[in-house]
Specification:
globular; 4-stranded mixed beta sheet; single chain
Length: 119
C-alpha cells in the first residue's frame, strides 16, 4: 500500500498500459479502484449524506470495471464505469448496494474488520 501511495502521481491508464498482460483472457479481468485524495474548497463531516450513484458504461474502456472515489465540496463522491459486455446494469446496481451497506456498517462499527462486517 505504501508503494502505491508513493506512486500516486502516476495515471492509472499508464499503469494499465505498462503492466497489463497482453493476453485478452487475462485482460478481461482488470478492475481499477481509484481514490482521489484532493481536498475540496470546503469539507464538512457532521452527518453522512448519500447521493444516487451515476452509472456510466463505455465500450472503449481499458478495464472492465472502474470505481473512482473523490472528494467534493459536499463530501465523497463515487463514479462508476464498466464494460457492458462483461457486466449488466443490474449486476452493477447490486454491487453498489452491497458496497453502500459495507460502508454504512464500517461507519456504524469502525472497530470491526471487513470480514466481521460482511459475514
Amino acid at each position: 500500500i505504501l508503494g502505491a501511495y508513493a506512486n500516486s502521481d502516476v495515471p492509472g491508464q499508464k499503469l494499465i498500459e505498462e503492466f497489463a498482460p497482453k493476453d485478452p483472457q487475462i485482460m478481461s479481468r482488470l478492475i481499477l479502484f481509484l481514490y482521489q485524495n484532493i481536498p475540496p474548497q470546503t469539507f464538512m463531516v457532521e452527518n453522512l449524506q448519500a447521493e444516487k450513484f451515476k452509472i456510466i458504461h463505455s465500450d472503449s474502456m481499458p478495464v472492465n470495471f472502474m470505481i473512482i472515489i473523490y472528494k467534493s465540496d459536499y463530501g465523497l463522491k463515487i463514479k462508476i464505469q464498466y464494460n457492458p459486455d462483461v457486466f449488466s446494469e443490474t449486476t452493477i446496481s447490486k454491487m453498489l448496494t452491497e458496497y453502500k451497506a459495507i460502508i454504512q456498517n464500517i461507519i456504524a462499527s469502525p472497530e470491526k474488520t471487513i470480514v466481521e462486517l460482511t459475514s
